[in-house]
Amino acid sequence: MKQSFFLVPTMREVPADADVVSHQLMLRAGMIRQVAAGIYTYLPLARRVIRKIESIVREELDQTGAQEITMPTLHPAELWQESGRWEKYGDELMRLTDRHNRQFALGPTHEEVITSLIRDSINSYKKLPLNVYQIQSKFRDERRPRFGLLRGREFIMKDAYSFHTGGESLDEMYKVMYDAYSRIFRRAGLNVRPVIADSGAIGGKDTHEFMALADVGEDTIAYSDQSDYAANIEMAAVKVNYTRPDEPLLERELVDTGDAKTIRAVAERLSVQEEKIIKSLLVSIDDEWALILLRGDHELNDIKLKHALGASDIRLATEEEVLEVIGTEVGTIGPVDVKGVKVIADHGIKSIVNGVCGANESNKHFIHVNEGRDFTVDTYADLRFIQEGDPSPDGKGTIRFAQGIEVGQVFKLGTVYSEKLGATFLDENGKSQPMLMGCYGIGVSRMVAAVIEQHHDEDGIVWPTSVAPFDVHVLALNVKKEEQMKLADSVYHSLQQAGLDVLLDDRPERAGVKFKDADLIGLPLRVAVGKRADEGYVEVKVRKTGEVIEVHADELVPTIQAKLQQLAE
Ligand code: 9G3
After folding, report:
1. What does the pLDDT read at residue 198?
2. So what's the pLDDT on residue 205?
3. How many angstroms separate the alpha carbon of residue 56 from the centre of ligand 1?
4. Which residues are within 8 A (CB) of 192 and not within 5 positions of it... i.e. 6 or more apart?
5. Residues in Cβ contact with 271 at an 8 Å cutoff, skipping those fewer than 6 apart
6. Which terminus has fewer CB within 10 Å in the chain: N or C?
7. How far apart are CA 531 and CA 518, in angstroms?
8. Low-confidence residues of the chain, pLDDT below 50?
């Protein structure tokens, strides 16, 4: 490809709203252009990277026996009404009507479409298991699209769906896809960590997210520094055996705490440690009030609260509701003599003796409060966010945090969709059973940004060879010099004949501009044809290491092939 007419509009400065490196570099390197918030055009360089990622995905999935299909983006509302998700999802689901006023959705995912297809085309256990996948654009009207391709409204996803007669078969496929995902991300040069995750709204049981480690990542991973335990912080279990310190129980006292409302303010006011304070939160759980108790130095993890109570809808009470239900302000709520609400406590409460809590009276707290004597806990559960330094729940090592970009997720859905949409099969006894399902997603366009987040330096992108838009960048440093253009052309063709993807910068630009653009675009190897062209020598630079070697054009192809081999290892 000759750069003089290749559509790669590089730019030096970036728009202010590009606030992460991958977004800035993709704009500067002329890979993408924004069309609207969260909606981008992929320019040729990005298209070539996406094509390389897609071919890695296809190779690995085809190897597992998965079959590629393409489902429509336009989904009839009826299918989503059958699954109950037309009502369940709000504005994030983009809806439209056709010329006959029939309602449709722009597909954010395809559980409904694929399950309706399979229910109508498979009805015998003999035809199962089956795994189908597609690579296609999805639409989710995100509240705050940001960070370029890391969180868009229209994005490319590889989504797969598998159908099974039983749990064993689903477990097997889940492992097959889990391993295929690990191979795909490794081949794309991504440092990815699988983590235990929450299946959230999608339902189903087990799920793992694949996190590309990166500080800009929106997700927090809690991992052990001595084992391969790793979980999304939402799901990281706290396994600490809390016991009450053996101290004499002191007489409970009511004390004035003035306008101290926060844990920090009360701790300072009463000169006690935050971990001695009982934090009380009035929470509505599926429209029932409950008082949630945590240690003052711990934070409530609402995902854990949902799982612990099997609840679907949880929300904190408003100031007004606290006044109405408890009869005091948020900052002075406590469990002593509280009537008509269930008291659910995190295990950490067991470590408190002679603690402090709100007195359910303005500006008042109790000190020397003890569970059992002064208040009763109906249920204990693991309700808090794990913290760095906590013991790893697998009993090995200590918890550390890292940020990650979710580039993939695998789910055991079970019969959530097959029951709602009636995807059943006749088992060997002729009995009708709901199919068990799994689903598996990879954020293909998000992966491009994740690769750049993990592979860049101050000068630009540093593409891993496996997903680089071209293998080699040949620069004719001075196109006016006949011998330079002649040599640049010949090395360009000999590299192409060797089966390499080559970009020839034949623009009438200054060498400095070409060097800067080459570093920005970040192809693995750069061949500069300059002053020594008349001797047949060119300069090869390895983008990743900065290593520069002078090579005679006759030795160039084997040299380049050897370097690419080295980089691929
Ligand atoms: C929606 C909207 C947004 C959504 C969903 C539905 C996320 C939704 C979860 C999944 C689960 C898996 C198959 C591929 C891998 C991921 N955001 N999810 O279901 F209506 Cl607006 O998509 N689906």
Report:
1. 87
2. 66
3. 23
4. 182, 185, 186, 210, 211, 212, 213, 407, 408
5. none
6. C
7. 18
8. none
